Amino acid sequence: MIEGINLIKSFETKNALDGINIEIKDGSVYGLVGSNGSGKSTLLRMISGVYSADGGEILVDGKNPFNNTEIKSQICYLPDIPFFIHQSNIDEMAKYYAMMYSTFDKERFEFLSSVFPLDRKARIQTMSKGMQRQAALMLCLSVRPKYLLLDEAFDGLDPVMRKVLKSLLAEGVSDGMTVIIASHNLGDLESLCDSVGLLHNGKVVFSESIDSLKNSVHKVQAAFSSVPDLSVFEKINPIKCEKSGSLVQLVAKGERKEILDFINSLLPIFAECVTPDLEEIFIYELEEKGYDFEELLK
Amino acid sequence: MTLKNCLNKHNPFLNLLGFTFKKNLGFTIIATIITLIFSPGFIWSFTKDFADFSTTYELTQDMSVVSGVMAVACTAFCILLLIINFGYLYSKKGTDAYHALPLTRIELFCARFIPAYVSSLVPLIAAYLGVIALGKLPYIDLDVAYIIPALIFTAFMILMLSLFTMVFIISAGAVFDAVVSIAAINIGIPVIIIFILEVCNNSLFGYANSIGNEPFIYGTPFGFAMYKLITYCENYGYNEVKLFPIVQTIILVILTVLLAALCLWLYNKRKSEKAEEAYAFSYMPMLISVIIGFIGCYCLGFIFSQGTVSSIAFWIMGAVGTALAIIIYSLISNRGFKKLKQALWLSLITFVLFVAVNVGISLDIFGYGSYIPKVNEVKNVNVNVVQYASTEEKAGIEKVMALHSEIIKNKDKANDYDHYENYDYIKIIYTLKNGEIVERGYSMPSVVGKDKKKDIIEYVTVPFIKKTFEEFKDTSFVLEGYYGENKENYGSVRLSKEKTSKLIAAYCDYLKKTDEKIFSGWEYNAYLYTGYGENQYWQEIAYNSDAVELIKLLEKTVNEAEKIEESVKVVG
To answer: A2-201: CATH homologous superfamily?
Structure first.
């Protein structure tokens, strides 16, 4: 398990992480979202032991990863700009990873080589950005780490490779791997993550499981022959309530059945309750907390 | 855990160590080939002609050149490898990758440092083996007992210098800034020492130390280590030292241990996020700024004041020089005027520091100009009043101190050229019982302390000449000097010991009786010497035309000697 307790990381006068508390359970996929400079990459670097904390603590399996070889050997961190040894090819990098990580699985590497269509003998520096990312993913996945930290993992990947990566990560998680992915793209995270955390200005705006997020927020559309006053809907504490002609659209938190029962008690011509997608949930949650979503993920 | 178990266990440290060695291998091979071209290649081509003559080439005596060249080349090679091996510190993706590896910082440091150091020893050892192989040739004379200590000393030296360089490599955030900081420290500090010595020379009454190459020897570990190595080699070449330079090696080992501890501490403290910034530690740009500011200040100050510290131009242009140097440095290291305010503050602090140092020297706050050691503290004193002399006698020391006091009392007359025409230079060197050396030199009007000078001649100089001569009384001397009516010829004549004794006695009598004119200079001089090299005794006979008795004796001595030897000419 990964825990961040009142974690602080400062760069000169700015706090990149400003006393955050976070908990990531083993065997889960955790999505970190936030705008540029929100602290996503900094948090990953602290988990991987690259940065030391200026305040609070970061614990991986109860231990500080900084300068801890035992913990670091279980973590594989893929930064937003992957690093390759100068003039190396994939096979050489695989040897390097095998030297560094005792868990490096050569069979897995051979399998991944067949999944990612890359020339293993070609110099990595001559490859495109997307191909370099595939090469880096291939190497990290071959390590079979307990914790896989991916910064902008989908950046530069085509839709097919995104799908492949998702299935590989799901496979890894089923083997007990914990994946933490930092991304701007909520669409990619929705189908993959068990939990998500939103960072803004070094603080965790919220951190919850996707299931609970999806079960807690409901989007209702109802048509009325005579639209009641919108204040009527206050009873269910809507996050959002809009009228458009005879149609009322509202978003509310709570039990789905209770919300629908209340709507139906107002005798609509038609009423349906749908689950909003992750982006919509984010918008509603953030608006409720007084944040401007567009600003947060700009 | 047994070694076997340790080796069997997956060990990222050993793996990275091996990997780095492999990465450095290409450079090592090239460096070794280049080295072998020099040694034994070039040395062999240089010495092979000796095979044609029935003589031998003394390679041992030229080993200081080989050792010096190899030490410089292998240190440079090691620094190059260190910059390559630690290059990841200067890129964010590099630090992300290396610091995320399952290694402690110390393991990572060692895994990157050791290969660079060991690789730099390969060409060094190859060159020395080449020299040893040359020594087997029949026409080359080489003392192999000398080679091994020189090699070991050089290896320690490279280690110490590499660790010293590592302090700057770790402290910098970019290669450029690492190079600038290495240059600033190793060149900047000696340059500042030179400037400060120049100010001392101009400002401190009695300052007598000449500015030689000492600032570059003692102002930087590079200069110090190289000087010690070459000194050892040269001394060995003259067969004066045949022992391993133990003291220097102990100093090197202590320095090496301290520097290694400092490097590891800095490396552990270095924040990964400082990659791609100019410096990883804030102390470094401040230190460099102060050094560069001092140099800027002295350069502009000296140029515009023609070296006069008391001139207002020195201080005004010094302030401009400080600010200019620090702002330019800030501009370069921050790639813009991002830290202009900080640079201006640093300029102010540096200039204040500069003023404090220079005003402190000018006002002689430590009492350098008025300091005379206590009689019971002094082991011996060297003084030159007409002649160089030395004494350990309390009475003699007191006479010298009396003159010293007189000079200090008349300090204001030192540059009073309107009132005094004749000046003489008096140098006094006290060796204290605690080993400290107090050295002073004064250019003073000849009349200052003339009675004290006469006392010195009587109680120090003359007894010293006699005592020294006594040690050589059984040897024959050579008298050498200009002769003839107009002193137009130069020659030498061999004297018997009796004649030499007479001459010395006559010279001592002359010195005792002469007036103060002799203090400001003399018209003629001759030399009495015996022996060669380090064993040579050498006595100057300086005199004026008033030395009637002495001149007669000199002429008589020469004439008699000419009659006997028929070969040599007269002294003037």
So the answer is: P-loop containing nucleotide triphosphate hydrolases (3.40.50.300)
